[in-house]
Structures are given as C-alpha cells and as structure tokens.
Amino acid sequence: MDNINKMPLPIIDIIIVNFNHSDDTFACIETLRHQEGVIVRILVIDNGSEDDSLIRLKNQTSDYQLIASPKNLGFASGYNLGMRTCLENGANLILIINNDTLADSNMLSEMVALMAPDVGLVAPIIYYAERPTEVWSQGGRMNWLLMEVIDNHGRNQPTPDLPFESDFLSGCCLLFNRKAIEKVGLLDEEFFLYYEDMDWSVRFQQAGYQKLVAPRAKLWHKVSRSSGGYDSPNERYWMARSSMIYFRKHVHGAAWLAVIPWRSGSAIKTSLRLVRSGRYAALKAFWKGLRDGLR
After folding, report:
1. For residues 99 and 102, what is the distance between their CA atoms, to the nearest angstrom?
2. Are 80 and 189 in contact (CB under 8 A)?
3. What gap in Å lies between CA 225 and CA 241, rounded to an integer?
4. At 172, is the secondary structure helix, strand, or coil?
5. What are the extents of the domains in the chain?
6. What does the pLDDT read at residue 169?
7. For 113-119, which contacts have Cβ atoms below 8 Å and span 24 or more sequence positions?
C-alpha cells in the first residue's frame, strides 16, 4: 500500500492556442491549474492576436510558458507549434484544448486512466458552456463510405456510464501520448480551421489505435468563439473550405458516387438555412470557401 501511495503523479503537457479573447484563456488555465491527481505544465501559443491578448499574457506567465507567433497560423499549425515544443522538451502525455473551455477538476485524471499502448486519443464529454447539462460532443459515429460523422456528435444519444470507443473525437480537447503521435504524425496544416480533428481521427483509425471517451471527464465549451460564432461568415468560410480539402484527401474512386450527392445536398441545405435567416454574407462566404477548397 505504501508503494502505491508513493507512485508519482502523471505529468501532462497542456497546449492552449489563444487568438484574441485572452479572458477565455485565463479562465481555462484557472480550471486546469486545479486538476486533481495529475501535474500539469501549460504552454500557451498566442496565435498572432489582434487585441491586447499578448500584452496581457506576457504579464501573467507564472502559471504557463508563452510562445508568441507573429501571425495567425490557424488551428492546426498553432497546435503543431506547441506539440513540437512539448516533444522537444521530453513530454510523454500531451493535451490539446481550446481556450474557450472550462474543465471539471477531475477531467484529466479520468482521461489519463484510459491511456494504454493501443489507445491513441482520449476525449472528455463536452457540454455547452451556456447550457451546462446539454452535450455538445461525445465523439461521433462515422459513415466510412461517406467519410462523415452521421450522428451529430452523439448529442441526441444517452451518455454511457463506462468508457466507450468512438470513430471521431473533437479536437476541442484531446489527450494522447508521445508514441502515438510519433506514429500518426501531427495535425495536417493544410487545414487552417475545422476538419483537422476529423482528419486526425481517420489517421489514428488507419494506424490501428482506439479512440476513447471518458464519460466522467467533463468539459464545458463556449462554442465557435475563435471563428466569430456559428453561421458567421468566417465560420462558414473555413468550414466549407476545410470540408473540401478533407474529402479530396480521403475519398477515392467509386466512393465519390456516394459522396458527391451527399455533399451537394448538404450544401443546398446549408444555403437554404442561411437564406431563411437572412445571413447573406455568410452564404457568400460559404460558397467562396467551397470554391477555394476545390482549388
């Protein structure tokens, strides 16, 4: 029993990318500082913020290391900068997490408990910050012909009591170990924003790793802060552009016969929704994103 009690706590290197909204970053850090049963080392990447974030972050570096990028690298490149730094510093367990989130005090200990040699990624249950009991994402089930998540991130499904495997895990919060990332590789930097987590989930699947959700690990997410909010022109542009890059990367041969009608129907449905809500700037951005992604 004494030997068990003296076992060292796991060390988790945490990467947070900040683009403006430093208040969100500070709130996220505060919840990570008080995690139970683990030791955390926090790295903040300021991704070319256009407000006073960098000044504020520099003034409060006692709880984290800070790297400042002179320009906005996007989600994938920003987190890759952090991952390379952590790996160079000898990190074994790494967590990437959105800055607009708030973690429950036992989130990391619950996630670490699921790490194993055949487990590539572990995620918490993610709830809406504005509606704290409503699930935003608990992974997702993929249709491997369409290469798309088909169950709305499991939002309408009951949450199991025990850990469970998922085809897709949101990049909002992911834990992984050094060996897995060395085998699978970093995030694909062709994705500036969105779909990089879908691409990563597919690549971990292809590498033979399990992707698990820890149901007692809880996180609350202020959705789409970095892109200006759901159905904003910026969010619609990057979602559309990245989707085209993703499907071009992963759909091959006869599978296009199923994917093209599916994606065409999705584009029409999105366009009608934007028209009905009077979001004409977002509609224009959406189609521009599709065009740019095809290029």
Report:
1. 8
2. yes
3. 18
4. coil
5. 2-221, 233-294
6. 97
7. 113/214, 114/163, 114/212, 114/214, 115/175, 115/177, 116/210, 117/179, 118/208, 118/209, 118/210, 119/180, 119/209, 119/210, 119/211, 119/212
DSSP 190: T
For 146-225, strand residue ranges (E) read 148-149, 164-165, 173-177, 210-221
pLDDT tens digit sequence for 128-186: 999 999 999 999 999 999 999 999 898 888 999 999 999 999 999 999 999 999 999 99
Apex 270 CA angle, 267 and 274, nearest 5? 135
Note the maximum CA span of the chain: 66
Query: What is the number of other CB atoms lying within 10 angstroms of the CB of residue 230?
Result: 11
Residue 95, classed as helix, strand or coil, is strand
CB 292 within 8 A of CB 245: no
Euclidean distance between CA atoms 185 and 128, whole angstroms? 30
DSSP 7-71: PPPPEEEEEEEESS-HHHHHHHHHHHHT-SSSEEEEEEEEE--SSSHHHHHHTTGGGSEEEEESS
How many angstroms from the chain centroid is the CA of residue 191? 12
Which tokens in the block code for residue 1?
């029993």
Q: Is 255 helix (H, G, I), strand (E, B) or coil?
A: helix
Q: Can you name the CATH fold of 2-221? A: Spore Coat Polysaccharide Biosynthesis Protein SpsA; Chain A (3.90.550)
Q: What is the pLDDT of residues 275-292, one digit of tens each?
A: 999 999 999 999 999 999
